[in-house]
Write a structure and sequence with these properties.
This protein is an alpha/beta fold. It is built from 11 helices and 5 strands, in the order αβαβαααβαααααβαβ.
Amino acid sequence: MSLDRRSFVALGFAVTIALSGALGCAAIAEPGPPKTKLYVMGVLHSTHLESESYSLEVLEAAICKAAPDVIMTEIPPDRIDRAISSFQETGRIDEPRTQVFPEYTEVVFPLSREMEFQILGTAGWTREIADNRRAALQGIQNNPARAQEWAEHSAATRKFGRDLQGRGRDPLFIHTPEYDALVKAGRTPYQDNFDADLGPGGWTQINKAHTDLINAELDQISGQGLTALVTFGSAHKYKILESVEGRDDIELLDTRGLFE
């Protein structure tokens, strides 16, 4: 049977519609597992005790607003169990590393009695790393052959302080890309000049140790639709953000919203 031009065009149009419909149905993907909602919060350690804009009370309100299921802390994994058990038994923390962080002793651990979140240790720090780093830095500082490198590091640290313009205790500023860029610039000479000397305690390797632990915990809770809060010293924040930016199983949330 022959088709005239009008019939041929009509048939072609019908075939196109049918194929488009079939392809459209095939393109509809099944929904994947729910993503982990992630906040990365920079904290100030003992400076919270003397800051009004980022006091422990402000920090506590922000954590309550985040309503996390999991809090990842700057406490080493081999110390977190002792910190938790001592707090549960006595209401106080007798683990030495944890004791130096008021954000944990005065806020996170007490809040764990009221809120149902799990506290995880995700710091790559060890006493040996800290002692070796301190000794190596002292040797570099006292070595005349390294004077130029030390001067570059010191100048970058001073410039960082000036560039903050009094905003270093403002949680709204701390949780901005501008703050992270200033930290990165201020740490670059330290990283470039001393990484090889400091080994596991160098800026590159210690942050990798932190972020490896953080990402391992994110792997453990992936696909459950939980809310995770990472709390680390604010200088580490940009490294943590860089480490998670390629993950497709998280929804990175704006931490500034917790302080507004």
